[in-house]
Amino acid sequence: MSRVNNWLNENSMYIALAAAWIAMCGSLYFSEVAGYVPCLLCWYQRILMYPLAGVIAIGLLRRDANLPYYVLPFSLLGIGVSSYHYLLEKTDLFDGAAVCRSGVSCTTQWINWFGFMTIPFLALIAFIVITIMAVIAMANHQPATEDAEGNPIHMPVLRVGGAVVAILAVFAVLFITGRADTSATETAQSPSFVVAPVSGPQMTNVGAAVNAVNSEDPVIVARGQQLYTQACAACHGPNAEGVANLGNQLAGSDYVANQTDLELLAMVREGRDLNHPENTTRLVMPPSGGRPDLSDEDLLAIIAYIRSQ
Question: How many CA atoms, within 13 angstroms, populate the side-chain half-sphere of residue 178?
Answer without folding.
Answer: 17
